[in-house]
Design a protein that fits this description.
The complex is a heterodimer of chains A (276) and B (67).
Chain A lengths: L1 H4 L1 H6 L2 E7 L3 H11 L5 E3 L4 H5 L20 E5 L5 E6 L6 E2 L1 H9 L9 E3 L3 E7 L3 E2 L3 E11 L4 E3 L10 E4 L5 E3 L8 E5 L4 E7 L1 E10 L2 H4 L8 E10 L1 E2 L8 E11 L19
Parallel strand pairs in A: 1-2, 5-9, 8-18
Antiparallel strand pairs in A: 3-4, 6-7, 7-9, 9-15, 10-14, 10-17, 11-16, 12-15, 13-14, 16-18
Chain B lengths: L1 H16 L19 E3 L5 E3 L8 E6 L6
Antiparallel strand pairs in B: 1-2
The chains are: A mainly beta (276), B alpha+beta (67).
Amino acid sequence: MELQQNLEKLHKRGLGVAAVSYDSVAVLKDFSGRKGITYPLLSDTDSKAIRAYGLLNESVAKNTAQYGIPYPGTFVLDKSGVVVEKYFEKDFRQRYTASEILTRRYGGVAGAPGQTIETRHLRLTSSASLGTVHWGERLALVADIELKPGMHVYAPEVRGYIPIQFTLTATPAFQAFPAGYPPARMLHLKAIGETVPVYQSSFRVAADITIAPEAQVKPLLSPEGDLTVEGSLRYQACDAKQCYLPQTVPLKWTFHYQALDRQRVPAELQRHPPGQ
Amino acid sequence: MARKRLLLAALAGVCVWGQAVPDSPGPAVGARVPGFDLADQTGQSRNLHSLFGPKGLMLVFFRSADW
């Protein structure tokens, strides 16, 4: 499980990790043994905790083995049990990943290192929160930008100048969420008597994507089973003296794609509909 | 900002996937979560308090380990 790979990083941040499902202790034991899971998997067979949290999925028919499942999601709690952050998807086939949450909450990138591109105005390093992706995983695509001394670029809300723009090239393999930009700094330009929202020195722009179902991803994989996502960063850089021509820097992320693991617990441990 | 992003993400989700899931179910940001007492995979009973690290807890609810 992706969470296990990020366990050490979460522990380093001082967070405990636990995961609740309606599975029996026997199922959880089998699963954690097979997957090498070391954090607590908690067995809520009658969905008591799931109900107490208001997470019971009411759209599941009561006479099926799936009745009792929660809406899946993640809470980050502080030491007193108060929710600091929560991550729930609209569709249960999609899920936030621990690495995406780490990237969003703590900055540092968890997974795949990317490429570094240098232009006359800046140095750009692209990376992603995961190196290997599966159907339904939500991950962050990141561009860390370091402007050369004296340079600034314009924030998205600027008027009259070309703003920085982080774009992903749409393909059926993923669903993209709007890019997130940091708060801008107001810069006063003496020469023209204007105050404009800009970025200087270093900052980060990122956008989340969710990996689409297998049938949509497969046709786009390379022979090696890799998925490539492309995008671009457009900007206009200026220094105290002049503005330079707008630039578009191509961006590229490559992931290893893995089909979902469908291995189940032994038949005698599997959950049955009520009354069977 | 984070909330706005989540809202945008949620709206985007509706358009593309169209599955009926309540908006952000469960305790809201700022609310205290209910306690519990559940057995872990080794059969040991764990309450909420026993799971915390020095700074808190990442508590995941997932569909099932077997599907």
